[in-house]
């Protein structure tokens, strides 16, 4: 019987259980919901919850904004700590590069936002500006 903190040597296991053990999702039910929602792919095809995952498979997993492409290195039926979970998979270089690029683009996009909410005086000035510069269009029927 394998120790609790070592990856088990098995042939295949359910993909929802592996995603939970590899710490992609906090619970198996969340992993199941993500799979059913089309967030997990193998060979560019959606997978089913009961799909068996094997060592060497390449999976694409979407979590929020991030989309990771990982190679399954080991299987484990138990959920260990993060360092143990990271031994179960390896993210591809293209995936890391793509995620970093998207993260930097999101950061640049957020720079256009103001640093703080407008104060009461700022809001009054904005409203006054809008009232002075709004043209009211009225249609007259003849």
UniProtKB/TrEMBL annotation:
Residues 13-76 form the RNA-binding S4 domain. GO terms for biological process: cellular response to heat. Residues 112-131 have a biased composition (Basic and acidic residues). SMART domains: S4 (SM00363). Keywords: DNA-binding, RNA-binding. Residues 132-142 have a biased composition (Polar residues). This is Heat shock protein 15. It comes from Acinetobacter halotolerans.
């Amino acid at each position: 019987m394998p120790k609790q903190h070592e990856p088990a040597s098995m042939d295949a296991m359910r993909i929802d259980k592996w995603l939970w053990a590899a710490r992609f999702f906090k619970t198996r039910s969340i992993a199941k919901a993500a799979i059913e929602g089309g967030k997990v792919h193998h060979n560019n095809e959606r997978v089913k919850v009961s799909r068996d995952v094997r060592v060497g498979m390449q999976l694409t997993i979407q979590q929020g904004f991030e989309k990771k492409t990982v190679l399954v290195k080991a299987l484990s039926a138990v959920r260990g700590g993060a360092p143990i979970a990271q031994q179960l998979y390896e993210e591809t270089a293209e995936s890391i590069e793509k995620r970093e690029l998207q993260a930097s683009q999101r950061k640049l996009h957020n720079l256009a936002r103001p640093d703080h909410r407008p104060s009461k005086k700022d809001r009054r000035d904005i409203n006054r500006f809008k009232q002075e510069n709004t043209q009211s269009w009225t249609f007259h029927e003849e």
